[in-house]
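pls read this protein:
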Amino acid sequence: MQQGRVQKFDELRGFGFILQGFKTRFYFHVANWLNDTVAPKPGMAVLFELAPGKKAGLADQAVNIVPLGSEIPKAGA
């Protein structure tokens, strides 16, 4: 798992960016947000994994995202 902060989130369109360090940004879609009780908000610290972009040549994207301090759901729960 990697750590970063939600930089921007467009609630209407369902996507945003996670900033890691000062320059590295990763795209994320709300479908990869694993917490149903807390919505992504700018500045929120998160844990996430990286996956290849959906199309060839696209940058890695953040998946399996959880707010820092939240428990990661267990399989089958």
Strands lie at 2-10, 15-20, 24-29, 45-51, 61-67. DSSP finds no helices and five strands in the chain.
